[in-house]
Amino acid sequence: MSLNLILMGLPGAGKGTQAQYIVDKYQIPHISTGDMFREAISNETALGLKAKEYTDKGNLVPDEVTNGIVKERLAEDDTKPGFLLDGYPRTLEQADALAQMTEDLNKPLSAVINIDVDPKLLTDRLTGRFICKKCGATYHKLYHMPKVPGTCDVCGGHEFYQREDDKPEAVKTRLKVNIKMNTPLISYYKDRNLLFNVDGSQSIDEVWQKVDQILSSL
C-alpha cells in the first residue's frame, strides 16, 4: 500500500525537518512545488516552458499549469511507494484538482499531516534570529545566544543585525497570509477524514514520534 501524503504547517512550524524524517524512514520522494517547477523547466517539458514564461516575468503560475506539472510529477515511477507533497495544494481549486488527478492515477491520498503551532510562538521563533554583521554567523534569542552577550562566538564582532523578513511586522504579515490560505484547506481535508493535527510546539523528536505513529498506523 503506498503512502501518499500532504504536509502542512505555517512558516517556522518545523515542516522541513519532519519532511526529511518522513522521506528517510518511508523512502518516498519529497515533492515541493519549487522543486517541481525547477525540474519541469530544466527538463523543458511543455508545461515547464509554459511555467517559465510566467516565472521569468515574476508572475504567479496559473493553476492549470501548476496542476499539470504536479500531475506529471506524480505519474513518475519513483512515486510508486508513495509521495510527500509540500507547498501544494494552496487553494481549494488546487485541492479539487489534486483529488481528481490522484483518482486518475489511482494514487489516493492517505493522510494530510498538519503541524499545528500557535502563531504567537511562531512569531517568537521567526523573529528571534539575528546575524553578526562582520562574519554572518547566525544566532537566535531563544535557542542560540552568543556565549558572551554582545560578542560573536566566531569572529568576536560586536555588531549584529536582523534580516528584513525576520522583523516582527514582516513575520506577522507572512503568518497572516499563510493562515488565510491554510484555513480553508484544513477544513476541506478534515471534512474528508484525511486530516491529522500534530502539536508542533513540542520538541522536534516528540513531533516526529507523533508523526511516525500516525504514518505507521495508516
Offer a concise description of the structure:
With 218 residues, the protein is α/β, with parallel strands linked by helices. The protein is built from eight helices and eight strands, in the order E-H-E-H-H-H-E-H-E-H-E-E-E-H-E-H.
Would you mind describing this structure in some detail?
By secondary structure, this protein is an alpha/beta fold. It has a single domain (3-117, 173-217), classed as 3-Layer(aba) Sandwich (Rossmann fold). The chain is built from 8 helices and 8 strands, in the order βαβαααβαβαβββαβα. It has helices at residues 15-26, 33-42, 46-56, 63-74, 92-104, 119-127, 168-191, 204-217; strands spanning 3-9, 30-32, 82-86, 111-116, 129-132, 138-140, 160-161, 195-199. The protein has a 5-stranded parallel sheet, sandwiched between helices. It has a 3-stranded antiparallel sheet with strand order 6-5-7. The chain is globular and about 60 Å long. It starts with a strand and ends with a helix. The model has no long low-confidence stretch (mean pLDDT 94). Catalyzes the reversible transfer of the terminal phosphate group between ATP and AMP. Plays an important role in cellular energy homeostasis and in adenine nucleotide metabolism.
